[in-house]
Specification:
Helix content is 36%, strand content 26%. It is α+β, with helices and mostly antiparallel strands. The chain is globular, with a radius of gyration of 23 Å.
Length: 232
C-alpha cells in the first residue's frame, strides 16, 4: 500500500473512532440527564420541591407533602438471581404513625435487598395471619406488641404486587415500591440496566405520597383504637 493511502486509511479510522466516542459520550450524557430528571414531574407537587443529585445518577425528589417532610429516591437493582432488573422508588415520609418502636415488613425476600432497612433491626417476628406469608418481618422488641393492633390496617398495602417493603416507626414511614422492570434484551445480552419509563408520572408520584401518608394514618388510628379498647 502506498504511503499516502496508508495515511488516509489511518486518518479515516481515527475519525471513525472519534465519531464513535462522541456518539457514546452523547448517549451517556442523555442517559444521565434522563436519570436525574426521572422524578421531575413531582417537583411542582411538593412544597419546596427540588431534585438533588446522587452518585447513582438518579435524582432524589425532596420537599414537603401535606405539611410533612418527604423524599422519593429511585434505586436500580439487578442482584436477584433469575430476575430482571428492578427500578424501585423509596418513599420516606416524616409523619407521626403513633409508634414507639420501628419494624419493617419485606415482601418476597431474596437476600439481595441492599436497600432494605430491616437488617439493622434486632428481632425477627412471624408475619400476622392476614399478611402475605412470604413477608420477612423484623423490628425492635417493643414493636411486637403493636403488630396485632395494626396488622389489619397494613394488610392491603402489603398485598399490593408492587409493594416490596414497608417500614414504620417513631420517625415516620418508608415504602419501597416497584416503578419499572428492566428491558429483557438489554439485560440478557449486555447486563445493561435499561427501563422503558423515562419519567415517573406526576399522578403516580402523588399516589405514592398519599399511600405513605395513608399508611401512617392507618397505623395511628389502629394503635389508638387498640389503646382505647385496652383502657375500656
Amino acid at each position: 500500500m502506498a504511503p499516502m493511502a496508508a495515511l488516509l486509511l489511518v486518518a479515516a479510522c481515527g475519525l471513525t473512532a472519534a465519531g464513535g466516542a462522541i456518539l457514546l459520550l452523547r448517549a451517556a450524557q442523555r442517559r444521565a440527564a434522563l436519570q436525574h430528571a426521572f422524578l421531575a414531574e413531582g417537583v411542582a407537587l411538593l412544597e419546596g420541591g427540588r431534585i438533588a443529585p446522587t452518585p447513582s445518577g438518579y435524582g432524589v425528589l425532596r420537599g414537603r407533602w401535606r405539611s410533612h417532610e418527604a423524599a422519593l429516591t429511585p434505586i436500580a437493582e439487578a442482584l436477584a438471581f433469575r430476575r430482571l432488573p428492578q427500578l424501585w422508588i423509596v418513599v420516606t415520609l416524616k409523619a407521626d404513625a403513633g409508634l414507639d418502636a420501628a419494624f419493617e415488613a419485606l415482601r418476597r425476600p431474596t437476600g439481595a435487598e441492599f436497600f432494605a432497612a430491616g437488617g439493622g433491626l434486632p428481632r425477627a417476628f412471624a408475619p400476622p395471619p392476614d399478611w402475605p406469608q412470604d413477608t420477612a418481618l423484623r423490628g425492635e422488641p417493643e414493636a411486637e406488641s403493636a403488630l396485632p393492633r395494626i396488622a389489619e390496617a397494613l394488610a392491603p398495602t402489603l398485598a399490593e404486587p408492587r409493594c416490596k417493603a414497608l417500614l414504620a416507626g417513631p420517625s415516620g414511614v418508608r415504602l419501597v415500591w416497584q416503578a419499572a422492570q428492566g428491558r429483557r434484551g438489554a439485560y440478557l445480552l449486555f447486563r445493561d440496566l435499561r427501563f422503558d419509563m423515562e419519567r415517573l408520572p406526576a399522578g403516580e408520584i402523588e399516589a405514592l405520597l398519599d399511600r405513605a401518608l395513608g399508611v401512617a394514618g392507618a397505623i395511628r388510628a389502629a394503635s389508638a383504637g387498640g389503646d382505647h379498647a385496652q383502657a375500656a
